[in-house]
Structure formats: C-alpha cells, structure tokens
Amino acid sequence: RSSLxxxxxxxxxxxxxxxxxxxLENDRKYRHLATTQFSSVTAENVMKWGPMEPVRGEIDYGPxxxxxxxxxxxxxxxxxxxxxxxxxxxxxxxxDGTETTLTPQQVRDAMQKxxxxxxTHFKGQIWQWDVVNEAFNEDGTYxxxxxxNAYEALGLPGHQYIADAFRWAHAADPDALLFYNDYxxxxxxxxxxxxEAMVKELLAQDVPIHGVGLQGHLATQYGFxxxxxxxxxxxxxxxxxxxxxxxxxxxxxxxxxxxxxHEVLTPELQATTEAFWRGTLEACLAVEACxxxxxxxxxxxxxWVPGVFPGEGSALLWDERLNKKxxxxxxxxxxxxx
Length: 338
Ligand code: G3I
Hints:
By secondary structure, the protein is an alpha/beta fold. The protein has one domain: Glycosidases (TIM Barrel, Alpha-Beta Barrel), CATH 3.20.20.80. The protein is built from 13 helices and twelve strands. It has helices at residues 4-10, 21-26, 28-36, 49-52, 62-73, 104-121, 146-153, 160-172, 190-204, 227-235, 267-286, 305-308, 326-337; strands at residues 14-19, 40-43, 77-84, 128-133, 177-182, 211-214, 217-219, 240-251, 253-254, 260-261, 290-295, 312-313. The strands form two sheets. Strands 1-2-3-4-5-6-8-11 form an eight-stranded parallel barrel, surrounded by six helices. It has a two-stranded antiparallel ribbon with strand order 9-10. Helix 6 (104-121) crosses helix 7 (146-153), helix 6 (104-121) packs parallel to helix 8 and helix 11 packs parallel to helix 13. The protein starts with a helix and ends with a helix.
C-alpha cells in the first residue's frame, strides 16, 4: 500500500514528521514508520540550542548528525528546527529565555555564533530552516526575550535580532529556505497580523526570508477558521508556506498508569478529530505555495501533549503502541481524493 509520502509526492507535497534520534535508533517499529511513511523529517528537539550546547562552547552535533544520516539514507528532506527560540535555551545563556547574566553584547555575539556555526555545520543538508521561532505574544507585540532585550539595551530596535538571524543564516547556507515559524496562526488574530507586518518589513529591507510555517498545534475544542486564508496571506507576499507541527489533541481518559487510552474517546470527539485532520490537509492542498505538511511526532506515546495538557491527547496518527488510527486513514483518503 502506498505511503503518505508517496501519495503526497504525487500531488507535489512533502509529507513530514518530527523525530527524535533516540527512538530512531532504539525502536524498530518507530524507525520503520518514520523512514517509510514520510518524505521529510524535523528534529523534534536535537537541533535546538539548549540540547546542542548545554555547556558553553561544547557543541554536541552527534544526535542531529545521526538524524540527518538516517534522512539521507532514506531519501528524506530535513527541516532544521530551530536556530533562534526563547524556549529550550542553554542555561548558561538564559535559564528561562528572558533573564541572563551575560551582557547585551555577549548575548548578541552568542546568537550570531549559534546561527552562523549551526547553519555552516549543516550547510547543504537542510531543506528549510526555522530560523526564528515564536517571536510574538498573542496580542501581536514582540516577546521580550533575552534576544529582544539585548538588542534594545544595545540601542537597537529590539526586533532587529530577527532580521540579523535571517541574514546570518543565509550567509552561512545560501541554499536553505529560511522560515519564520509560529503557533496560533490558524485563526485571524493580532498575532497573525503582526507576523504579516513583520514579513513585509523584512522583505522591504531585503532580508532573506523565504517562508512562514504555521505550526498547527490544534485542539478539538478550538477551531482553525482561517487556516487556508492565513496560509494564503503569507503566500500572497511571495513566500512559501508550510504546516510544520500538526497535532490535534482532544479529551482523553487517563488510564491510571500515567498514560491515557484513546479508545475512550467519545464517537463525537473522534469524528471531530478526524474532521480536523482532513481540514488541515485540505487547507494546505488548496494553497499552491504550501510545500509541506508535517505531523509533530509518530505515535501518541512520544507526543508532548499529555505532559503539557493533562487529560488531553490522542493527538497523532498512530497510537501508543504505534498502531494506525482512523486519523491516518482519513489523511490517506484526502490524498487519494485530491
Ligand atoms: O532530554 C531531556 C532529558 O535529558 C531530561 O532528563 C528530561 C527531564 O526534564 O528532559 C528531557 O528534555 C525534554 C525534551 O522535550 C526531550 O524529551 C524537555 O524537558 C522537554 O521540555 C522537551 O519538550 C519539548 C518542547 O518542545 C520544549 O519546549 C517537546 O518534546 C517538543 O515536542 C516541543 O516542541 C515544540 C516546538 O519545538 C515548537 N513549537 C511548539 C512545540 C510543542 O511545544
């Protein structure tokens, strides 16, 4: 039977998945699914700054290199995630993404080094980089991150760190497509309008930005009323767009073992979940510039959702034992009928 990757490929769409090197190396079934069902991979964690450089100056490229080697062996593209993000920063830089004991100039220098060295190290191996991740608050103001604050303290516009990051990444790896990536862009809000204004400003300044990623972390109690419109919003600026981290969580019953079981979903919630999967993929297929659709993990056992939203889960296409769910078949149907 054809894979998601091959069916999407016939439509010109790359179908991706977020993976972890540990599971790729140690779980046969996981590896089989991750390497046969998908045409691109994103590092769920191993390319983030904190995991890569826990000790200042000692950069551990190993897990990321292993992930890329697996992708090359299996003819998969790689989405690099992520060069600059306020979360999962190394403790020596900032324990919480805001506070720091470094001087503003040291923060800027460290950021330049991080972007340049990482993009240089992986040069030619990364299809798309999420250069900057999650720069906005929900009200459309810029997050006051350690990067933003350092620039302001240097007398620069706080948000200029974003333009700099794209320029440094492009100088290091001119062939990589450079993306801005964020969540809650699936409905129209001050945040999506601010992201649009930022992209226009970057383009007006000739900053090398090539795409915007809508993460697509969705929940069945909220909708995604403007997903297609907002993909089109960025496409209309001449950019590529992508759904970069899709998962769709719903209410599940704890199994008493620290996990949960998706079998207890009500038929209504199950139907809503399937309709959400269908709708997100259809939105991407409807927008010419939507070049990839990535799901944020293989099976529910690896999903970040239950840890962050207790009582919610069943957010992925395979269950805790890596059995296919109806959600998987729903996506196949969408691809078959497109
Ligand atoms: O690897 C360490 C381990 O050594 C340590 O003992 C353990 C104890 O806390 O933590 C492990 O690290 C965890 C890491 O995942 C790997 O499992 C971190 O605590 C945990 O915070 C981290 O969570 C990740 C989260 O980003 C961090 O903010 C999730 O796996 C990952 O799915 C999630 O992904 C983000 C995207 O990058 C950006 N968009 C939102 C998305 C969901 O939050």
